[in-house]
Amino acid sequence: MTSSFKEKLGKGGYGSVYKGKLPDGRLVAVKLLNTSKGDGQEFINEVASISRTSHVNVVTLLGFCLEGGKRALIYEFMPNGSLEKFIYDYEQNISKDNRQHLTVKDLYQIAIGIARGLEYLHLGCSTRILHFDIKPHNILLDDQFCPKISDFGLAKLCGRTDSMVSMLEARGTIGYIAPEVFCRNIGCVSHKSDVYSYGMMILEMGGGRKNLDVGVHHTSEIYFPQWIYEHIEQGNIEPELLGLVSKEETEIARKMIVVGLWCIQTNPKDRPSISKVKEMLESTQPLQIPPKP
C-alpha cells in the first residue's frame, strides 16, 4: 500500500505519515503511530472520535490497523497538505512545487469551512467531540482547498449537554491552548476551549503571521493579538499594515481578526460558541470590537 513507506508526507510527536495507494487506485495517507509513545490512548482516541463523524470539513478515516504493538490509521489523501504552509506571509506562500497562491478571500472561505467542521463536532454528532488541538498544522486541504479538520489524538468525547469536561492533564499545542486548560482558576474546560484555539488560528490567517514572532522590527509587535488590537481599537487598519493591497482584502482580514479577538477572550464565558463564530464570519453587518483579551 505504501511501497515500503517510501514517500513521507509529514512527521510529528505521534509518528509519521506516508503516502499510499489502495488496490482500487485511490490515494491515501497512512499515519503510522510511534510504538514507544504512551499506551495507545491517542490511537484509541482517534479511532473512537473520528469513526463517529461524517462531514465535508472533517477528514475521513478509511480504516485502521492494530497488529501487536504496531498501530496505523488510513485517511483520505489531501493533495494540498496542511494550511500551515499557506498562511504565514502572503508574499511568500507559493511553495517550491508551485502550489496555488491563497488570497485573503480564500483564507476567509477556509476559516468558515473550519468553523462549520468544528460546529459539527460540537453539535452535529450523537456525542460531542472536543478536539483540543485546533491549529493550522491540523487543518488539511483537498484538491479544491476545502479544509478538513484532522488529528484527533487529543480529542475528548462528552455528552452534548455537558457544559464542562474533566481533564487530568493539559493537552494541546503551546500558543493555541486555552488558558483554562492549564489554569483551572480561569474557568471550566469546555467546547469554548476549542473556540480559543480556533481564534488564535484565525488571527494568524487574518494577519498572515504567527501570533508570537520575535523576528519583528519592534518589540511591541512581538505578540500579534495585543499589537493588532490597539490598531483595531483606533480604527487604524490600512492595507499596508497587514501587507495587503486593496481595501476589500483589508476589510476581510479585519473581520477575521475581530472574530479571532472575540474567540481568545480570557474568560471562557466571554467567548462566543462556534455557531456564533460562524454567524459572525458570514454576517454582512459591522462587528462589535471585543474587550481587550
Task: Give the helix/strand layout.
Blueprint: E1 8-12, E2 15-21, E3 27-33, H1 41-50, E4 61-67, E5 70-76, H2 84-87, H3 104-124, E6 128-130, E7 139-141, E8 147-149, E9 156-158, H4 179-182, H5 191-207, H6 224-233, H7 247-263, H8 274-282
Antiparallel strand pairs: 1-2, 2-3, 3-5, 4-5, 6-9, 7-8
Number of helices: 8
State the share of residues found in helices, binned by percent: 25-40%
CATH topology type of the largest domain: Transferase(Phosphotransferase), domain 1
Q: Count all strands and give the number.
A: 9
Described by strand count, sense and barrel closure, the largest sheet is: 5 strands, antiparallel
CATH architecture of the largest domain: Orthogonal Bundle
By secondary-structure content and strand pairing, the structural class works out as: alpha+beta
Characterization of the model:
The chain is of the alpha+beta class and 293 residues long. The chain has two domains: 8-76, Phosphorylase Kinase, domain 1 (2-Layer Sandwich); 84-282, Transferase(Phosphotransferase) domain 1 (Transferase(Phosphotransferase), domain 1), CATH 1.10.510. The protein is 31% helix and 15% strand. It has a five-stranded antiparallel beta sheet with strand order 1-2-3-5-4, covered by helices on one side. Strands 6-9 form a two-stranded antiparallel ribbon. A two-stranded antiparallel sheet has the order 7-8. Helix 3 (104-124) packs parallel to helix 7, helix 3 (104-124) runs antiparallel to helix 8 (274-282) and helix 5 (191-207) packs antiparallel against helix 7. The longest helix is centred in the middle third of the chain and has 21 residues, at 104-124. The chain starts with 7 loop residues before the first strand and ends in an 11-residue tail after the last helix. The relative contact order is 0.11. The model is unreliable at 90-99 (pLDDT under 50). InterPro entries: Kinase-like_dom_sf, LRK10/LRL21-25-like, Prot_kinase_dom, Protein_kinase_ATP_BS, Ser/Thr_kinase_AS. It comes from Gossypium barbadense (Sea Island cotton). Residues 3-288 form the Protein kinase domain. Belongs to the protein kinase superfamily. Pfam families: Pkinase.
